[in-house]
Amino acid sequence: MKYGYFDEEQKEYVITRPDTPAPWANYLGSPDYGAIISNNAGGYSFVKSGANGRILRYHFNSDDTPGRYLYIRDDASGDYWSASWQPVGKDLAVYKNECRHGTAYTKITAEYQGITSEALYYVPLNKTYEVWRLRLQNTSQTERKLSAFGYAEFTNDSNYEQDQINLQYTLFITKTYFKNNKILQTINQNELKDKEGSNGKERFFGCVGTEVTSYNGDKTAFLGSYRTYGNPIAVEKGHCDNVLNYNSNSCGALHSSFTLQPGETKEIVYILGRYNDKDSDEILKAYEDPGVTEKEIQELKDYWHGKLNNFQVNTPSSEFNSMINTWNAYQCFITFIWSRAASFIYCGQRNGYGYRDTVQDIQGIIHLDPAMAKERIRFMLSAQVDNGGGLPLVKYDHNAGNEDTPDDYSYVQATGHPAYRADDALWLFPTILKYIGESGDTGFLKEVIPYANKEEDTVYGHLKRAIRFSMERQGDHKMPAGLHADWNDCLRLGKKGESTFVAFQLYYAMSIIKDFAKDQKDSEYIEYINKVQGELFDTIQSLCWEDDRYIRGIKEDGQVIGSKKDAEASMWLNPQSWAVISGLADREQGEAALESVHRELNTPYGVRLMAPSFVDHAFPGALAILFNPSTKENGGIFSQPQGWIILAESLMGHGNRAFEYFKGSSPAMQNDHAEIRVLEPYVHGQFTESTDSPFEGRSHVHWLTGTASTVMVGCVEGILGMRPDLYGLRIAPSIPSDWKEITIKKVFRGKSLNIRVENKDGAEGGYKEMYLNGVRQEDNYIVENSLKEENEILLVM
Ligand code: NOJ
């Protein structure tokens, strides 16, 4: 079943049926003022912290209520509906609704009984409040007497848990007032009285463009007892009773009544934010100018589309185009900016950036905005400990140079992370390589950045210490020790256990640092790396290769994990893809390992993380057993590794396979059977249920997932073959053999590239010749200084 389509022109996903299998969300604003909104206007808002700065209430794991509700009432008949299908939920046979999720705005239109409504929701660029613009038009032939009600349900406490649970306290601390066309809410008002500023304890919900006829500041007065958001008593009666909150739940409910002649339009702008009386009046005043909202929406589009336009592709697959040009790209920015802060699944409790997640999130935006990426790389380097390891959790108020580390009890207590993880700092290598490749900024290697706890070093020095961290922590077989965990949160190999995945990461990191060392003319270090990398190669090849697969690791007690002989979890995905990505596997091993993946792990919805799922034979430390079979790490289709297998197949020149995996796991490809996927068809989730599940194909944990960046890299670097390095760009597409032509518009180091790939002979990898501005090149590599401002590139496959 299909609930919507991609509008590539507008860069919007258009939901044409509002009864989607789950709330399909969009992100507005930024964590400075964050708003999440569903296609039925459900969702919440917060200032700075999803957990501690919550201002709009939302019922998690429930029915997508409450939300940013706009009710419309026909005052002649008493009939009423909402600008979004829910909460009133009119019969879809007579109520038409469309929701357009765009880049940082959402527009919901409806048509009912001769009235069209358009509710436009956004947070203006760099502002810390939100706008709901309601436009109503009378499309009938008669004069209509109408009422509009705007409803915002404030939390009683900025901490969302306090608001939901500690009712003996939070029910008795707020008050509301009606002042100048707005409801003002205060928290702990008397305590605030003599203090400067409102300490974030005043919120407002006001409107411009109409006089408020009646209002409520008390939720129950608006909804009525034993009623729902679908039939508030105030809307039913046609007016509020001007009841303010004292010892109950606050809300902002603003009612206005007016008449619309046939064809006439009315616009009301509602604004919500965490501001005091005076400041909110000023904000509202700015919207008396009727052009402001259009200008702000244009600013948002210019900002986001400007970024996305730095890389645009045209292939025969419209789904691939929509994902790479708009939705996967936009999701990369959202995960980059929001980390795992807030969604309909994440309540905002994680008080910082996960090291590995964030360093990987950066990779997804490097080709679109290298400068933005650089800033975050700096930040993450400043969260590396002087011993070379990464802080598993980097607090939002991270204070470089002064932080405690996992060696300190205080850090463990504050973050809940008991020890270093084996992989964290190793993610820096591909990320920094990609950044320098995209920007050409080799000077970055010399930039001095502090460590998290003490001392400072150049970026190059930071990377050397990351290598040292792994070299100093080895298991009995001289592979990197498993420490607390590697990428897989559910795999405890033991402190001295050894992870094949981390070994590949380290091997790859060594290749990357060798290139950096050449650039830095550090021959002594190159010699060292050549030696240790050779040793690591021999170790991995002798211990981890088993016929047609690489094992997953060796436990502290010597038990091999992921052996062909194992009754369960005998085949693991990541060691196979990373054997290729790291450059360690030879051609034959790569072919065999990837073939085993296809044979044993592939499903119609993507590739399983491992198989068979743990049921009866989990070893101590195989925490995946906690999950149902075919779920998450227990043999589910974990989404993040899909990007790695797409990349690995592409690196092998297997364009058909790479695209097969893209298709299997891509949200856009599931658009026509969205009832199976359930999750938004325009964003990746964390995982998809696999073969053992009665709900095979159902996906979970929307939006904030490392999948955004890995799949982006798999497609851009892998399938499309954009492979920048320190000095230029290699173009090496691995595309499905039935793609006869693709074009790519890419900004590379400030220059425009118009790339055309011709594939008349139906190849899936490799190239015959390449031309830059009409000149045949020696191979498929472009040196930066041969580029003009505008460049025409033709690659013949
Ligand atoms: C989710 C975590 O956020 C990510 O860091 C981890 O790598 C995966 N789970 C796999 O366990």
UniProtKB/TrEMBL annotation:
Residues 11-289 form the Glycosyl hydrolase 94 supersandwich domain. GO terms for biological process: carbohydrate metabolic process. Residues 303-721 form the Glycosyl hydrolase 94 catalytic domain. It comes from the Bacteria. GO terms for molecular function: carbohydrate binding; glycosyltransferase activity. SUPFAM superfamilies: Galactose mutarotase-like, Six-hairpin glycosidases. PANTHER family: CELLOBIONIC ACID PHOSPHORYLASE-RELATED (PTHR37469), PUTATIVE-RELATED (PTHR37469:SF3). This is Cellobiose phosphorylase. It comes from Anaerocolumna jejuensis DSM 15929.
